[in-house]
Write a structure and sequence with these properties.
The chain has 123 residues and is an alpha/beta fold. The protein contains four helices and seven strands. It has one domain. The longest helix has 15 residues. The relative contact order is 0.18.
């Protein structure tokens, strides 16, 4: 279900650095605000992933997944652990986190990285 986009120079440069010169022009965008502006419950995070997972069936091995946090007011470790951590386990370095200006998003991502000993790619 990927879409082809024309990158601005900054975004193209990020992908070229991240993927060692390989141009990945197909990617999926997940706008978390579509799941709500306050993402706090572990159960809600699990339900959101279950509802969204069928959309991931057609993602190719060369497609990146961008998770956009713009518009999200509150983002808890519980919700993030149920939604973002499994996506990282599936897609690894192809999962890119975008628009992480909110302090609760930053704190949650930092906590998940420490707990799981992983490092998310942030654009």
């Amino acid at each position: 279900m990927g879409k082809t986009f024309i990158f601005n120079k900054e975004r193209r440069g990020f992908y070229e650095r991240m993927f060692r010169g390989i141009n990945f022009l197909n990617f999926m965008i997940i706008e978390l605000k579509k799941f709500g502006l306050t993402l706090t419950s572990r159960d809600d995070g699990r339900e959101a992933l279950a509802a969204f997972k069928p959309s991931l069936n057609n993602v190719s091995e060369h497609e990146t997944i961008e998770i956009h946090f713009s518009g999200v007011n509150t983002f808890s470790p519980s919700w993030g652990d149920e939604f973002i951590t499994p996506l990282f386990q599936i897609f690894g370095e192809r999962l890119i986190l975008v628009d992480m200006n909110n302090l609760s998003v930053q704190a949650t991502i930092n906590l998940l990285e420490r707990i799981h000993k992983i490092k998310f790619n942030v654009a």
